[in-house]
């Protein structure tokens, strides 16, 4: 296969809301370029990119799928992404390696919430972006409304390249960059180029001049030419548009019918001639602080942005060549672990189809099989100087479930399957809670969970159940208390004897030392589960030998690991051991551990014990007209509103909320706002549980 240089490789990521037509557009581009001879459809379950069984079953993209096509001596790599934000990990990783983001907009609906969410990541990465209004042939298409919604999202720097009209019953596209009209037959395909109709000339001229001005704004030389001539040539406009896209200041708007192949060829021509290539982008800086220059003669570096497991192939690793070039049998070092990897096979992937190649150059996207030590986000490099490309930052899970296997024999299989699912989708997090003795699965939403469950059943043969995770409460005290306990056991021969007197108090940072005690020793323990235990030796006169103090403390710690109220960890207590008794023969470590545990438990129960619950900082982005419903729901969840921020037509609500009240929030918020609100949360602190809830929790534990 032909090897393309860095100027002739264009990486375009198709993003957009569900059902906007991304997969159909990608299929049409492959057909238009002759890479496939027959276009598949979503309904017939035979498109190139939606080839996974689950995608065909649901008739929706679940995975980001790399494809490629060639158009007039340019190679266009396409990544077709899902439209649902449950699969945001697939979308983010694709945006990260794309050179241009193509946002596909359903002409019937305009900008939808999914597109807004994706735009936030596109904006964060500062990626050149163009918009494509699809379905212009649909009777319910509202092009002007869709265009307005784009401008509401990105501002007036969204500039029309095209707009659709009907002429003599035919669908036409007027292109104000080329100042031509493309007239399509009833089945689309190659258009007839005609002059712009007289009744459209005024509008076309106005939009052309607007485009000229926007193009000129991005370069001083172009601005001078514009002032001198009053216009720019087509090539000068292309230069200005590209600079505007690179500066993230200009967003061209196209229109197509992906289903009927209208406008696809012109779109590919624009991608060839104007859309930035990898070599046009600013050099990245590695974690080591060096520039990664996208040039063929630079040290080779590959960035792994996607991992996929297939039963017949094993692990497929997708990468972008960030610098240099890669050949079959090249050796690389993994910057994360120092391991050596050999690229034994090199492919260009078109869905499930693999096309072997011998070499890939800077800017290209490829894949290889069966790397042993490499995962998503890794950097592979040649040479002696390490190169580490900044990793993709994935969002935290929005829902968590405790996961258990239906058949206990599948425990080990589940662990291995979840590891693979996480490697394939880093937004899926798995951890085992030693505290609650549960395996916790974190993901982006109920649909995401449904896909994980489908994968476990159909690809790994594992049936699992999902439940609400146990909340990790803490126990503490609110006042001081004293207690003593005598442990005596006689059963012939040496017995057991220990007596311990102690006082406990709530601990807080900066509190003064206890009064009325002769402090002979102090130990501060930063507890693994948060908070502190401060343990004082206040023994006078040697009534308890010093060697038994660690055993008393061990008994205290055993109770702290399983509190008397609900079995939760205890935190933020200080203990003063001030008196006791021992026996010259029967006293030993186990006796004092038992006495210390019983004395501490008795004192704890008499010290007004309280449950603490984890609370989260919650940020909700919600349309202004839906704030009332969202706030009412939050208040019913015991949240405390901290403040509001305005952002365009949205309100940003910031509040604290008990973690127990967040269960099911993702689904409920989506239902309340028709999917238009988003949220993020992170752990904040532990706070006192209300008395009525504490009583209920203690009853449940009994």
List keywords for this structure.
702 residues, alpha+beta, seven-stranded mixed beta sheet, six-stranded antiparallel beta sheet, elongated
Topology:
Layout: E1 9-15, H1 22-32, H2 53-58, E2 65-71, E3 74-80, H3 88-97, E4 100-106, H4 113-124, E5 129-134, H5 143-154, E6 158-160, E7 162-167, E8 170-175, E9 180-183, E10 192-194, H6 198-216, H7 220-229, H8 234-246, E11 251-255, H9 264-273, E12 284-285, E13 291-292, E14 301-310, E15 314-323, E16 325-327, E17 331-334, E18 340-342, E19 347-350, E20 353-356, E21 359-361, E22 365-369, E23 379-381, E24 399-405, H10 411-424, E25 429-433, E26 438-443, H11 446-460, E27 464-467, E28 474-476, E29 481-489, E30 496-506, E31 521-526, E32 532-537, H12 549-560, E33 569-570, E34 573-581, H13 589-605, E35 610-623, H14 627-636, E36 640-647, E37 650-658, H15 665-673, E38 678-688, H16 691-701
Parallel strand pairs: 1-3, 1-4, 4-5, 5-11, 6-11, 28-33, 32-34
Antiparallel strand pairs: 2-3, 7-8, 8-9, 9-10, 12-13, 14-15, 14-23, 15-22, 16-21, 17-18, 17-23, 19-20, 24-26, 24-27, 25-26, 28-35, 29-30, 30-34, 31-32, 35-37, 35-38, 36-37
| General shape | elongated
Q: Can you tell me the residue ranges where pLDDT is under 50 for at least 5 consecutive residues?
A: none
Task: Give the strand order of the largest sheet, numbering strands 1, 2, ... along the chain.
Answer: 2-3-1-4-5-11-6
Beta strand count? 38
Mean pLDDT: 94
Q: Main β-sheet: number of strands, strand sense, barrel status?
A: 7 strands, mixed
Which structural class best describes the helix and strand composition? Answer: alpha+beta
């Amino acid at each position: 296969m032909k090897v393309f240089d860095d100027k002739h490789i264009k990486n375009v990521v198709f993003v957009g809301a569900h059902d906007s037509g991304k997969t159909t557009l990608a299929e049409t581009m492959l057909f238009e370029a002759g890479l496939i001879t027959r276009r598949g459809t979503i309904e017939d379950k035979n498109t190139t990119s939606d080839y996974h069984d689950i995608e065909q079953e649901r008739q929706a993209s679940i995975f980001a799928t790399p494809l490629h096509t060639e158009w007039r001596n340019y190679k266009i790599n396409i990544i077709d992404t899902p439209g649902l934000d449950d699969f945001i990990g697939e979308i983010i990783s694709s945006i990260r390696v794309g050179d241009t983001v193509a946002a596909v907009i359903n002409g019937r609906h305009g900008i939808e919430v999914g597109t807004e969410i994706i735009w936030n990541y596109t904006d964060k990465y500062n990626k050149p972006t163009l918009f494509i209004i699809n379905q212009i042939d649909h009777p319910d298409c509202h092009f002007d409304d869709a265009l307005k919604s784009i401008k509401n999202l990105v501002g007036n720097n969204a500039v029309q390249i095209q707009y659709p009209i009907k002429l003599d019953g035919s669908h036409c596209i007027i292109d104000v960059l080329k100042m031509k009209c493309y007239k399509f037959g009833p089945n689309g395909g190659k258009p007839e180029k005609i002059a712009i109709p007289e009744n459209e000339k005024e509008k076309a001229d106005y939009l052309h001049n607007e485009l000229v001005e926007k193009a000129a704004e991005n370069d001083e030389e172009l601005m001078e030419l514009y002032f001198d001539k009053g216009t720019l040539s087509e090539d000068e406009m292309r230069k200005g548009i590209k600079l505007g896209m690179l500066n993230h200041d200009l967003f061209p708007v196209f229109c197509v019918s992906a289903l009927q192949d209208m406008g696809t060829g012109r779109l590919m021509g624009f991608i060839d001639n104007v859309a930035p290539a990898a070599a046009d982008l600013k050099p990245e800086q590695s974690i080591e602080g060096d520039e990664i220059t996208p040039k063929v003669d630079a040290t080779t570096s590959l960035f792994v942005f996607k991992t996929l497991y297939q039963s017949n192939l094993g692990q497929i690793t997708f990468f972008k060549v960030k610098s240099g070039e890669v050949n079959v049998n090249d050796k690389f070092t993994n910057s994360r672990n120092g391991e050596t990897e050999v690229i034994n096979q090199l492919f260009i992937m078109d869905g499930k189809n693999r096309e072997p190649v011998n070499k890939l150059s800077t800017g290209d996207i490829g894949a290889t099989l069966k790397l042993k030590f490499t995962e998503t986000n890794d950097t592979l490099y040649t040479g002696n100087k390490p190169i580490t490309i900044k990793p993709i930052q994935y969002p935290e899970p929005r829902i968590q479930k405790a996961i258990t296997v239906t058949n206990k024999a599948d425990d080990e299989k589940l662990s291995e399957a979840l590891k693979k699912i996480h490697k394939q989708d880093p937004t899926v997090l798995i951890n085992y809670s030693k505290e609650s003795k549960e395996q916790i699965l974190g993901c982006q939403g109920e649909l995401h969970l449904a896909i994980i469950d489908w994968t476990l059943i159909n690809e790994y043969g594992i049936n699992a159940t999902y439940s609400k995770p146990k909340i990790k409460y803490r126990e503490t005290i609110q006042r001081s208390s004293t207690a003593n306990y005598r442990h005596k056991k006689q059963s012939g021969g040496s017995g057991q004897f220990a007596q311990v007197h102690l006082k406990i108090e709530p601990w807080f940072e900066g509190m003064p030392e206890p009064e009325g005690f002769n402090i002979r020793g102090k130990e501060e323990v930063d507890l693994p589960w948060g908070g502190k235990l401060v343990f004082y030796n206040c023994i006078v006169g040697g009534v308890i030998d010093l060697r038994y103090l660690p055993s008393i403390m061990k008994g205290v710690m055993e109770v702290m690991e399983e509190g008397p109220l609900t079995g939760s960890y205890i935190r933020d207590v200080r203990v003063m051991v001030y008196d006791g008794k021992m026996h010259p023969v029967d006293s030993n470590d186990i006796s004092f551990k038992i006495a210390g545990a019983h004395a501490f438990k008795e004192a704890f129960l008499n010290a007004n014990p309280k449950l603490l619950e984890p609370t989260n900082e919650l940020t909700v982005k919600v349309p202004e007209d839906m704030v009332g419903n969202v706030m009412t729901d939050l208040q019913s969840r015991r949240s405390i509103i901290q403040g509001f921020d305005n952002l365009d037509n949205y309100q940003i609500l910031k509040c604290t909320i008990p973690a127990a009240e967040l269960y099911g929030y993702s689904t409920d918020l989506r239902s309340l706002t028709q999917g238009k609100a988003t949220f993020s949360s992170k752990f904040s602190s532990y706070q006192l549980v209300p008395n009525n809830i504490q009583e209920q929790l203690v009853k449940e534990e009994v």
